Amino acid sequence: MTSEKMNRLELGMSKEQVTEILGNEYTIAEKRIQDSNEIEVLSYRDSYNNDEFYLFLFKNQKLEKWYRELLPKDKIELD
Predict the structure, then answer these.
(1) What is the C-alpha separation between 38 and 3, in angstroms, rounded?
(2) What pLDDT was estimated at residue 2?
(3) Measured between alpha carbons, how far is 35 from 19 in angstroms, rounded to an integer?
(4) Tens digit of each residue's pLDDT (9 = 90 or more) over 28-37
């Protein structure tokens, strides 16, 4: 996950636009219907820093927010 790629992202982008920038090496972390809206969360693991990953939340196929998560140290050692 490079800052160059992250700087190209904008809220409201489609899932296809985001995956075109970040690639297809993601995991679907969550998918649900909430208040008649389709919610999907994609997870990208940072290949340079294995203890962090990025989550991208799409609402009706549009990027609504993203954030970074850090794995607890004890979880990293198990991987």
Answers:
(1) 28
(2) 76
(3) 25
(4) 999 999 999 9
Q: What fold, for 3-78? A: Beta-lactamase Inhibitory Protein; Chain:B, domain 1 (3.30.1450)
Global pTM reads 0.81
Burial of 18 (0-12, 13-18, 19+ CB in 10 A): buried
Q: What's the rounded Cα separation, in Å, for the pair 3 and 26?
A: 17
Question: Measuring CA to CA, how many Å separate 70 from each of 11, 24, 49, 73, 79?
Answer: 22, 21, 10, 9, 14
